[in-house]
Amino acid sequence: MRDQQLAHIKEKGVAEARRLFWIVLYLWVLLGLFAVHRSIVLNQQDIFYHQGFAFINALVLAKIMFVAEAFNIAEDMKHRPLIYPIVYKSAVYTVILLSFHVVEDALMGLWRGKTLGESISSLGGGSPEEILVVALIMFVVLMPFFALREVGREIGDDKLYEQFFVRRTKYIPMQS
Where are the transmembrane segments (predicted)? Predict the structure, then answer.
């Protein structure tokens, strides 16, 4: 009995770690590209330095997404056609991630001796239009992520993983 419980806990831990890994990887690619873009636009030479911050941000934001998923945030539309939960989750998680990014920028600015207003004004360049553009980009970039998550929920995460990384087999839906 105890061995079965330990095996179940280990199996669940591995599955959760795998889910967290994919979230971190996706966000790191996204944030890493933003960092490269910013380095090129601002003509900065320390591209790799910013990749470290992109990775740390990816870890933090992935954990936030992971916890939000554990609390079933934005699960209201899971029985509707796939486009609804994909768009809804992208919007909700954009707000969540942007909010935490603002808090993070504020705390980092305060730590560096800036005022709260100076800290927050650096997000997305500072203007409301630029912050809106960052939110729009994040919303669009989260859509493929949630599309894959929702498809994985429908056909099974293992089957989705198999289709992408193991071998291609024709998907035959189960008859219900």
Answer: 20-40, 52-74, 86-111, 131-148
Could you tell me how far CA 95 lies from the centroid of its own chain?
A: 12
Closest CA to 54 of 35, 77, 67: 35
Name the residue with tokens 């808090």: 103
- Name the band, by pLDDT with cuts 50, 70 and 90, for residue 142: very high
CB of 88 closer than 8 Å to CB of 76: yes
User: By three-state DSSP, how is residue 75 classified?
Assistant: coil
pLDDT band at 125, cuts 50/70/90?
low
**CA–CA gap between residue 161 and residue 45 (Å, rounded):** 37
Q: Which residues of 112-149 are buried (b: 16+ CB within 10 A; e: fewer)?
A: eebeeeebbbebbeeeeeebeebbeebbebbbebbbbb
pLDDT in tens, 24-58: 998 899 888 877 877 777 777 776 777 787 888 88
* Cβ atoms of residues 88 and 74 within 8 Å: yes
- The predicted model scores a pTM of 0.74
